[in-house]
Amino acid sequence: MKKYLVIFTVMITLFFSGCTNRKDDPTIRIAEQFGLAYAPLQIMKEKKILERINPKAKVQWLKLGNTAAIREAVLSGDLDIGFMGIPPFLIARDKGMPWKIATGLSSAPLGLVVPSGKYTSLRDFGEHAKIALPQPGSIQHILLAMACEREEGNPALLDRHLLSLKHPDGMNALLSGAVEGHFTSPPYLFLESDLDDFEILISGEKAMGEPFTFIVGGVTEEFYGDNPVLYNDFLKAVRQSINFISENKNETLDILSEVYSMEKDKLHDLLYRPEMDFGTSVKGLEPFISFMHRNGYLDQELSQESVLF
């Protein structure tokens, strides 16, 4: 294992040493993903908030479907900033990804949705029951493993039951009975658990044992070092975008109802639930690091200082 990590690290070093120097380049490349937890990024994009802060900035938005695509874009030199859950960020950093966390973006409820009244604990899933979640190493997977360790002493208890599906497909599979559980995030968590036939068996916060940040922004060390002004302007834009959501609800709903193809009344109900918390703080980093290293998801015991700018 160590041999492959050395080879991987050397390849990254050689690749980035051959890249064109982007020092003082006004271009900033940001990955966007779908979901309510990423709402401030959509506001930043549609309102051109970063361009207003820094008129020289050339903002390029890359629509990427998952964390694996974001990691590949960073390694290929096509991306400066990517947003994702803390666990997949840590896995990438552990494998040699040259980036650190610059900011939090949102905290939101996550949870395992199951048919109402069918399960009372995690040990109740039968031999052939399937649980849908985005992918191994996702924050949903790690939280489920935390819950299994907390309740049953075995973080891998349900690994053989897992099925990797995108959130919309996971929701469809749950509603149709193709899977027995769906570990998901808003809006799917709300849409599923609001139905009488389904309930949340275990929440992400209960699995973790404390509150945590759902989405964080990772910035490459190269961009951070070469573009200090643009980096700080980006952080200002994140804060202004978050403030915009709370201070300009009507315009926010006008913008996001088109982005998410959702009626404004329904979007208002989902986006402004008390559980949805947009902010730049980063919570839960050390518990994730400790659990993931102890159970083999991370080879290194990373420190909070080593992964935060």
Short characterization:
With 309 residues, the protein is α/β, with parallel strands linked by helices. It is built from 15 helices and 11 strands.
Please render the helix and strand layout as text.
Blueprint: H1 2-17, E1 27-32, H2 39-47, H3 49-53, E2 58-63, H4 67-75, E3 81-85, H5 86-94, E4 99-107, E5 111-115, E6 131-133, H6 139-152, E7 162-164, H7 167-176, E8 181-184, H8 188-193, E9 198-203, H9 204-208, E10 215-220, H10 221-226, H11 228-247, H12 249-259, H13 264-271, E11 277-278, H14 285-294, H15 304-307
Parallel strand pairs: 1-2, 6-7, 6-8
Antiparallel strand pairs: 3-10, 4-10, 4-11, 5-8, 5-9
Describe the overall structure.
The strands form three sheets. The chain has a five-stranded mixed beta sheet, with helices on both faces. Strands 3-10-4-11 form a four-stranded antiparallel beta sheet. A two-stranded parallel ribbon has the order 1-2. By secondary structure, the protein is of the alpha/beta class. It folds into two domains: 2-14 and 21-108 and 214-307, D-Maltodextrin-Binding Protein, domain 2, CATH 3.40.190; 111-208, Periplasmic binding protein-like II (D-Maltodextrin-Binding Protein, domain 2, 3-Layer(aba) Sandwich), CATH 3.40.190.10. The chain contains 15 helices and eleven strands. Mean pLDDT is 92; it is low at 1-20. The two termini are 28 Å apart. The chain is globular, with a radius of gyration of 20 Å.
